[in-house]
Design goal:
heterodimer, A: alpha+beta, elongated, B: mainly alpha, 16 helices
Chain lengths: ~180, ~475
């Protein structure tokens, strides 16, 4: 754990970059330098940034598949259960046997979509550890421009390769401006 | 490589010819976009806003009074009478739910098709979807007469042990509409989170900072977050895409699965979906044309956007015109006496002018103006056509629903439907609810997706500013230049 002379715990070191293109190039350099605990911050998703950071595909889709399957099974349960077993409704003498299953498809489809959408919605928050209203980065006032037109890169002090001088030099060499130590508290 | 310089020139020439007009005009930068779009909601409400809101909120209030009167007194306050058991109520339901479809098409299908121009219009179109579905959902609830029994539609055990009929098209409709609304809310909110963070960071008052802060979920634009977020957004778009096509299909099953002539047709699902997108785009333009002029957003919602939406209206309007024609042809070709009579009745019966004016002129003829570039670029013409389509699509639903019932199999029970004041004011009330909600939306939330529209600018490209280099031209690769 790194602390400042004033006793603050250090979260990491952050820098601002002038453009999306500059941030993209910087990210490739930081990736190649072998850092693990770092991130870039931008007002919008930058195309190709995942590769530039060395991140793979997001497996959020697995949760959505799981949600979709559970939605389908739920629909099958609430349809076959009451309509075939608990309370087969005789409507104008129409059959209630298994061959009426096409009439169940619309609700199966709807619940598949509904459950899959809910899993996508909750998965992106849970996988991102959101909501989290307090974060060390918010201690740096400069980063508020990230939701407007600012592009930032931060390397955490937890990273095994983190050294104050080494990270400072790397950020400076990649064109980072306003290089700052960000406090944990 | 000897051929490289020549090839480079050739490529540049081709690029120049197919060069697209930029989606954000006048080379506006990120900060300008944030300022202009957030500025709409950060300045005090202009006077016209209060005037219009007072009018629409009054209409909404009176509409709610009519709904209360109808619930407490009974469906007899409406003009519905056998044989016309469904009239303005279900017409309004289909009308509003159809309007919603444009929003989902813009947010989902155009996203999958990588139509970047959608970024300027998707937020307000999605909001429009939600408000339209809210208006739509009122009618099936109250038209059953015993509104307090509406919970019977939910598949939960009740004290009589009676279950829903899951084989009924009406039950499908309950699931389709509620799923549609829920998924639209999730999709809309997911898209809003980065913009709420923008508003949080710009907030000057404590209350704004607190509320936007809560709803922004602590978003900080991290790329590790964007990665999952983009995947979720893509999958929500993928899930919404079949939903757009299914909701109005299921609505049309309510009709197509009956034996009423003009309803009992297989063409209904695609016909309804095309009509829904047609009417929805007209409503998007009806709302956005004034908004872009008032808030000076012409650099973001450019003539190109209006032009593209007009083309979609032309396309879907032509689908609708084709479906109308095909309905008549099949009625004749089927040889079915009742079917032929019902369609004859459509054009020469009690609602003849609804057909000639609403369906023929408004829905089929007026969009044909959009074949001409001049018309697509003249805001007044576009607005006129959109108003025609708004009206025409309501008439179309009324003709299909009431026009199909008014002269049924037994001539002795023929009876023309006339709306009562409660019918009329309930409908006007939902227009009031819709516009009031939209006015509140443009006051309190960003009407353009800032984080998305920024990606449509050239500066968002990570390779922006690099000299265009020629890659694998000779091998005929798709990646010609960067």
């Amino acid at each position: 754990m790194i602390t400042t002379p004033y006793g603050h715990t250090v979260y990491g070191m952050a820098a601002e970059y002038p453009s999306a293109a500059a941030l993209y190039e910087a990210a490739k350099r930081v990736r190649d330098a072998g850092f693990r605990r770092w991130d870039v911050y931008s007002p919008f998703p930058i195309h190709g940034m995942d590769e530039a950071m060395g991140l793979g595909k997001s497996w959020l889709s697995g949760w959505v598949l799981f949600g979709g399957i559970s939605g389908f099974l739920t629909a099958a349960l609430i349809e076959f259960g009451p309509s075939s077993i608990l309370y087969p409704l005789d409507v104008n003498g129409k059959p209630t046997n298994f061959f009426t299953v096409p009439a169940f498809f619309p609700i199966m489809f709807e619940l598949t979509v509904l459950f899959a959408a809910f899993s996508a919605f909750f998965a992106w928050q849970i996988m991102n550890r959101l909501p989290r209203w307090n974060h060390p980065l918010f201690n740096w006032e400069g980063i508020s421009r990230v939701t407007n037109d600012g592009f930032f890169l931060a390397i955490e002090a937890r990273d095994p390769r983190f050294t104050e001088n080494g990270v400072y030099q790397l950020l400076e060499q990649t064109g980072g401006q306003h290089i700052t130590i960000v406090h944990e508290d | 490589m000897d051929g490289a310089p020549a090839a480079a020139q050739e490529v540049q020439e081709a690029e120049r010819r197919i060069a697209h007009v930029p989606l954000v005009l006048n080379r506006r930068n990120f900060d300008w976009l944030t300022e202009r779009i957030s500025g709409v909601i950060e300045q005090p409400a202009p006077r016209w806003w209060w005037v219009i809101f007072a009018i629409t909120a009054s209409a909404a209030t009176f509409g709610l009074f009519c709904i209360g009167y109808q619930i407490s007194t009974g469906v007899g306050t409406w003009g519905n009478q056998i044989p016309v058991g469904w009239a303005w109520d279900i017409t309004n339901f289909v009308f509003w739910i159809g309007i919603g479809h444009a929003g989902t098409l813009i947010s989902a299908i155009l996203f999958l098709l990588r139509q970047k121009w959608r970024t300027s219009i998707n937020r307000s179109a999605e909001a429009m979807t939600l408000f339209a579905v809210i208006c739509a959902a009122i009618f099936p609830g109250i038209h059953v007469g015993r509104f307090w029994m509406a919970w019977y539609m939910a598949p939960i055990p009740n004290n009589w042990g009676i279950w829903q009929n899951f084989r009924s098209a009406l039950m499908w409709d309950v699931f389709a509409v509620s799923t549609y609304f829920t998924v639209s809310v999730l999709f809309w909110y997911t898209g809003l989170v980065p913009d709420l963070a923008t508003l949080r960071d710009r907030a000057t008052t404590r209350i704004r900072k607190f509320l936007f802060g809560i709803f922004a979920l602590g978003w900080r634009g991290s790329n590790r977050h964007w990665r999952h977020y983009e995947m979720a957004y893509l999958l929500l778009a993928g899930l919404s895409t079949p939903l757009v096509l299914s909701v109005h299909s299921v609505v049309s099953f309510d009709f197509a699965s009956t034996l009423v002539p003009t309803w009992h047709t297989t063409i209904f699902p695609p016909y309804f979906v095309a009509g829904a997108i047609f009417g929805g785009f007209a409503m998007v333009l009806t709302l956005l044309l004034p908004a872009r002029a008032i808030f000076k957003l012409q650099d973001v919602i450019t003539p190109q956007h209006v032009d593209k939406m007009a083309k979609i209206i032309l396309l879907t309007g032509s689908f609708v015109g084709y479906a109308y024609t095909m309905e008549f042809f099949i009625a004749w070709y089927s040889g079915d006496h009742y079917e032929r009579f019902a369609f004859w009745n459509r054009i020469f019966g009690p609602y003849w002018w609804y057909w000639w004016f609403g369906m023929l002129f408004c829905n089929v003829v007026s969009p044909q103006l959009f074949w001409f570039r001049w018309c697509r670029h003249n805001v007044l013409v576009v607005f006129f056509v959109c108003m025609c389509v708004n009206a025409g699509m309501w008439f179309e639903r009324f003709i299909i629903i009431a026009g199909g019932l008014v002269r049924d199999f037994l001539p002795s029970s023929w009876r023309v439907y006339h709306p009562t004041w409660v019918d009329i004011w309930t409908y006007i009330g939902t227009i009031g609810i819709f516009t009031s909600l939209f006015l509140l939306f443009i006051r309190f939330l960003p009407m353009i997706a800032m984080s998305e529209v920024k990606t449509a600018t050239p500066e968002a490209d990570p390779h922006y500013g690099e000299a265009p280099e020629i890659e694998s031209v000779s091998s005929g690769g798709k990646e010609r230049t960067r």
